[in-house]
Write a structure and sequence with these properties.
Layout: E1 5-10, E2 13-18, H1 28-43, E3 48-53, H2 76-85, E4 89-94, E5 97-99, H3 101-108, E6 111-115, E7 119-121, H4 135-143, H5 145-154, E8 158-159, H6 160-166, E9 171-173, H7 177-190, H8 207-222, H9 227-240, H10 243-258, H11 261-276, E10 293-297, H12 301-312, E11 316-320, H13 324-343, H14 349-357, E12 359-362, E13 373-376, H15 382-395, E14 401-404, H16 411-415, E15 424-429, E16 438-443, H17 449-461, E17 465-470, H18 477-494, H19 498-508, H20 514-521, H21 523-531, H22 541-552, E18 565-567, E19 574-576, H23 578-590, H24 600-621, H25 627-637, H26 647-654, H27 656-670, H28 679-686, H29 691-698
Parallel strand pairs: 2-3, 3-4, 4-6, 5-7, 6-9, 10-11, 10-13, 11-12, 13-14, 14-15, 16-17
Antiparallel strand pairs: 1-2, 7-8, 15-16, 18-19
Helix pairs in contact: 1-2, 2-3, 3-4, 4-5, 4-9, 5-8, 5-9, 8-9, 9-10, 11-25, 12-13, 13-14, 18-22, 18-24, 19-24, 22-23, 24-26, 24-27
The chain binds (2S,3S)-3-hydroxy-2-methylbutanoyl-COA (T1G) and nicotinamide-adenine-dinucleotide.
Nicotinamide-adenine-dinucleotide (NAD) is lined by residues 297-303, 320-322, 326, 377-380, 384, 388, 405-407, 429-431, 521-522, 525.
């Protein structure tokens, strides 16, 4: 098998070219190839060495698929040290995204040049890791402590012009990278530029104090993740110890992070997110329909956010509502949201103005008839949605995709209200729609393949993470949520308070506790959804009794200033409200429930194992394609902490046998109608199989 790395001589410069699609990951063969290239250059009579990549990007890091397997030599730290030790000038030429180990190869080179639209970064922290090939020691020496810590603890790449300013690269190449890099090398040689070994560079004065000053901020932003603090310790070493000693500590902490369950979880998420975009049985080259114009029906909480997401991605958008007032109300919320986005520096004034200009309001269906995609976001009522789809069927041009943003309703039934069910699909956004990254794509029995492929591509264009779901009540996310919220409500009745239940989940790592999430989304959304169900399908009334009392008393959540909490009108900070605790105690009494001390561990296990059990039921039924999809839904749609890997990865990590045992216990205590183990859970435990093994054996993707 030929090496993915070639060596040739151009104008007496040794050129090491890496060609390992899709992202030139530093696999074993690539590492060996670079090492051979450096040694070859050492033996040949060349003036300098150029390291460059073919394809769409410079090396995007170590090969993540090799993680967890026995590491093979040459290891990356060895290779980068050999690059730096080379007695010929070594220049790295960067394009695309030079990330992780890829950027460490560049940092060990004596000079770095890049095309202007390249970016450099050390995103290892997003995998629960740290730069393990000298990055934590060389970056502070080259770019200073503050830049280095920010780059490594945020994991956010830095555009080349900014990297030039920060001293992380030395030259921007115009035009063809290879030609420009060779010209740059020749100018360095002509100027007798010295071999600059980053490891020998001093750190800036007062570096240790700078690191100490960053500790609190890094610890706060870490939100329970351990990798950022390990990175900080490495930088501390870099600014207080000799390079060799600091590198030694870097390797120890790298090994520690590699064995950390948080990294296993984040690596799972990395691949699960990429796999979620793949639809089994749908070839990657399935034809797609053209989408240029998008129309939204309903200019409320969701309609407005969806319109912004589409406009931000360059689509022309028409926003339709029942009357001018409703349209004006919707557009004014959009204006306010753009104002906030600009204030937070997420968009420039000009960019926000350009996006806003792409959104037009209307009350006329005729005005939207030539749209390529229409997304309905009217009240959560099946009959109303059927009426709207019948009107869309009568209005929209042939070939237009008709989508619904319903949270719970039967998309098959909505499709059946049209004469073109093959063009109907569920596009379920999450609130606030211009912020949340998840998009549940709900295929009906009749959804055409090109509608599916087009919707997946549309999701990526508007920078959403798409996850496919079949039709069931609440799809993947909200169906599981109803179990999670059920247990939250029952824990309230049995002795908890909104503050204690939310605290238990937030200390465990959830971005926001269940009751606060209810207040954010609006308690009326779930209430209306329940109301639209036939009485026999609403479940045990005691479960939602407290919420129903709050909604019926006008406490809809943040949007009315009160729900399970009161909200400070200025800061929007949540304030525990004794009135709500009184309502809880009254309802508990009404149902003859004796309240007791309920500890955080029980709350966490009931909510998370309930979630996982329903998730396994959903995978077992084929509603979700794979367990990883369920994890991505919760991480991108419900604030599940990525360093816990998602509800199913978490269940796998604590042991499915333990989860099953607890569920059976809960069944005995609280009733099997609430706690029946998912068949897939029982099957896996009986077969002593983990979910990861089952996934691997089922199709691996
Ligand atoms: N290793 C292996 N496969 C990778 C990979 C990697 N580093 N990066 C991407 N892929 C695969 C990915 O799974 C997908 O495969 C395909 O490439 C396209 O990716 C010692 C230890 C580079 C910005 O964290 O951020 O270096 O699904 O769909 O949207 O210090 O991929 O097609 O089969 O994401 O254009 C540090 C990870 C590693 C960067 C491109 N590096 N990659 O995004 O395409 S740790 C990273 C990315 C490290 C050292 C340490 C992105 C990208 P498939 P994609 P994209
Ligand atoms: P909302 O009450 O904020 O907005 C609904 C809008 O639809 C209102 O502006 C109303 O005037 C308009 N409308 C009603 N009937 C109409 C008709 N016949 N034609 C045109 N416009 C009409 O509601 P929302 O929270 O934006 O929810 C909308 C949909 O999105 C619901 O199906 C809901 O379940 C779903 N959803 C909501 C959330 C959430 O968190 N709020 C999240 C995901 C999905």
């Amino acid at each position: 098998m030929s090496s993915p790395v070639s060596f040739d001589v151009v104008d007496n410069i040794g050129v090491i070219t890496i060609d390992n699609p899709p992202v030139n990951a530093l696999s074993l063969a690539v590492r060996a190839g670079i090492q051979n290239g450096i040694r070859e250059a050492g033996q040949q009579d060349v003036d300098a060495v150029l390291i460059i990549c073919a394809g769409r990007t410079f090396c995007a890091g170590a090969d993540i698929t090799e993680f967890g397997k026995p590491p093979k030599s040459p290891w990356l730290p060895e290779v980068v040290d050999e690059i730096e030790a080379c007695d010929k000038l070594v220049v790295a030429a960067l394009h695309g995204t030079a990330l992780g180990g890829g950027f460490e190869v560049a940092l060990a080179s004596h000079y770095r040049c890049a095309v202007a639209d390249a970016a450099v970064g050390l995103p290892e922290v997003k995998l629960g890791l740290l730069p393990g090939a000298g990055g934590t020691q060389r970056t502070p020496r080259l770019g200073g402590v503050v830049t280095a810590v920010k780059l490594m603890t945020s994991g956010v790449p830095m555009p080349a012009p900014q990297a030039l300013e920060a001293g992380l690269i030395d030259h921007i190449v115009d035009g063809d990278l290879k030609a420009g890099a060779i010209a740059y090398i020749k100018s360095l040689l002509a100027d007798n530029a010295p071999i600059r070994r980053t490891s020998e560079m001093p750190v800036e004065p007062g570096a240790a104090e700078l690191v100490a000053g960053l500790r609190e901020e890094v610890a706060t932003r870490a939100r329970g993740q351990r990798a950022p603090l390990r990175i900080l310790e490495c930088v501390e070493q870099a600014v207080t110890k000799p390079f060799a000693e600091g590198s030694e500590r870097e390797r120890e902490l790298f090994t520690e992070s590699m064995q950390d369950p948080q990294s296993a979880a984040l690596r799972h998420v990395f691949f699960a997110e990429r796999n979620a975009g793949k639809i089994r049985g749908l070839p990657r080259n399935t034809p797609q329909r053209d989408i240029e114009k998008v129309a939204i029906i309903g200019a409320g909480t969701m309609g407005g956010g969806i319109a912004m997401s589409a406009a931000n991605a360059g689509f022309d958008v028409q926003l339709l509502d029942i009357d001018e007032d409703a349209v004006a109300r919707g557009l004014s919320v959009i204006d306010r949201n753009y104002g906030g986005t600009v204030k937070r520096g997420k968009l420039s004034e000009d960019a926000a103005r350009a996006c806003r200009a792409r959104i037009q309001g209307t009350t006329e269906y005729a005005a939207i008839a030539d749209a390529d995609l229409v997304i309905e976001a009217v009240f959560e009522n099946l009959d109303l949605k059927k009426k709207v789809f019948a009107q869309l069927d009568a209005t929209m041009k042939p070939g237009a995709i008709l989508a619904t943003n319903t949270s719970y309703q039967d998309v098959d039934a909505i499709a059946a209200a049209t004469g073109r069910p093959q063009d109907v699909i569920g596009l379920h956004f999450f609130s606030p729609a211009h912020v949340m990254n998840l998009l549940e794509i709900v295929r009906t029995d009749k959804t055409a393949d090109d509608v599916l492929a087009t919707s997946m591509a549309f999701a990526k264009k508007i920078k959403k993470v798409p996850v496919l779901s079949r039709v069931c009540y609440g799809f993947i996310g909200n169906r599981m949520l109803s179990v999670y919220m059920r247990e939250a409500q029952l824990c309230l009745l049995e002795g908890g308070t909104p503050a204690s239940v939310d605290a238990a989940m937030e200390e465990w790592g959830m971005a926001m506790g269940p009751l606060s999430v209810g207040d954010l989304a609006g308690l009326d959304v779930g209430y209306k959804a329940r109301e639209s169900l036939p009485p026999g399908e609403r479940g045990d009334p005691k479960v939602h009794r407290v919420t129903d009392i709050l909604v019926e008393s006008g406490r809809l959540g943040q949007k009315t200033g009160a729900g399970f909490y009161r909200y400070d009108p200025d800061t929007r900070k949540r304030i525990p409200d004794p009135e709500v605790v009184e309502i809880i105690e009254k309802v508990a009494n009404e149902y003859g429930i004796t309240r007791r001390d309920i500890d955080a561990e029980e709350i966490v296990e009931r909510l998370l194992f309930g979630l996982a059990n329903e998730g396994l039921r959903i995978v077992g039924e084929g509603i979700a394609q794979r367990p990883g999809d369920v994890d991505i839904v919760y991480i991108y749609g419900y604030g599940f902490p990525p360093h816990r890997g998602g509800p199913l990865h978490y269940a796998d990590s604590v042991g499915l046998d333990h989860v099953l045992a607890r569920i059976r216990e809960f069944g005995e205590r609280f009733g099997e109608e609430l706690w029946t183990p998912a068949p897939l859970l029982e099957e896996l435990v009986a077969n002593k199989q983990s979910l990861a093994d089952w996934q691997e054996s089922n199709d691996g993707v």
